[in-house]
Sodium:solute symporter
Amino acid sequence: MGEISLPAAQAIVYSTLAVFLGIGLYGGRRTGNSKSDFLGTGQTQGALPLGLNFLATSVGTWILFSLPEIATIAGLMGVFAYSIACVLPLLVFAYLGPIIRRQNPDGFSLVAFILTRFGRGLHVMYCLVIIVYMALFLTSEFTGIGSILALLADIESPVPVVVIAVVTTIYTAYGGLQSSIFTDAIQAALSAVMIVLAGITIATSVRFDSQAVQDSGLLNSTKLGWELMYIMPAAVTFANMYHQGFWQRTFAARDDRTLLNSSIIGSVTTLPVLILIGVTGLIAVWAGTWKEPQPGYNAFFTLFKVLPTWVVGLTIILSVSLVCCSIDTLQCALVSSVSELFQNRLSIWWCRVITVTINAPTLYLSLAQIDILQLFLVADLLACATILPVVLGLVPQSRRYFRGWEALCGSIGGLLSVIAFGALYYGNIEAGIKLLYLSDGLYVDDESVLGAFLVAPSGSILTTVIACAIRMVTGER
């Protein structure tokens, strides 16, 4: 196995962070004390840097765990389902972004539209949901990089994770979104190049025979694979509607054509990167470096048993780059969401204080080793159940039929419909409640998860329509 010494690994981590710190400070040099420049960039970004930012926002250290894991469970179909799921939201933002930008030309997020369309009550609820979702995402990235450094270089100390948090906080507190967008473009390009290099190295260094490929069955069509073709795109697309980082970049595009072009650039760069990472899970199975009952999320890292040492160093740089991409984006997104909660009345200095303080609870949770992946599954299902009433509000004619109360009913109805489906499917209410938080995980043998992700959005729409009909029948204005 390619092994790297502890001092060498630490030197790579801290040298990479030093470079990113310099880049981040340079990128935020023009922000100064302008809150508008700190929380947004105006409509100033071109297609290429914004496309690379969409790539950076779509990836993170999670791709080194989740994609190879799904490959060991659902094979190539699972890899394609997950990869397409992560690309589809970029096209959705290209479609919805111009509509929301026209209705809120001075805003920089979905929740600004919710305030003007549905009122303060729903605005507060969605702000809180987004803050929790972004905080979970940030916690998962801290957890992910800690696990990666432990697997690759036996770095068990939390010090490098804390240093990563400090470095990203310094340049995001200094330059805000300006720093994040500038660094993300560079980090995303660097990460893509390194992933291609790693993919070529794995393809030329790892050996397996055709019989192992055939015996694994991972290239075959499976029931789970077909279910994931719906579940993953639905889950990720609806969940990313809550991702403030995507909305900030959507509003940063110079114009609608630029937004479309940047979405295309982001899509055509993100898709092959994710597929390359996912296929490493297949290769680990075929080469025999990963075998059950090993956890699937370690499949990528088992390949280092047969890879040269320099690949370990390259992967450490890649991991630090990926985590910085994600963390600075999430830090800016969290600050923006908190500012939105207070209707953007906070001063830039309060925004900078929030940038610093948000790391403490997320770092603590990451050290506690909470099952963040399970929490994300729940967040995905909740997003499926609650986001569509807001999206329906984009239709101009909808103003005649439903407002904040109907949208709230639709959100609650989406959640209750999952419980009702689970109760009918399993025959008791307790099982229905457990289905709402996916207690058995995503990869189950029955159709309960598929049903939940089908019922959640449809139940949400149905409840919204019923609430509208009741108001119209009763004549309430």
In short: The CA atoms of residues 302 and 462 lie 47 Å apart.
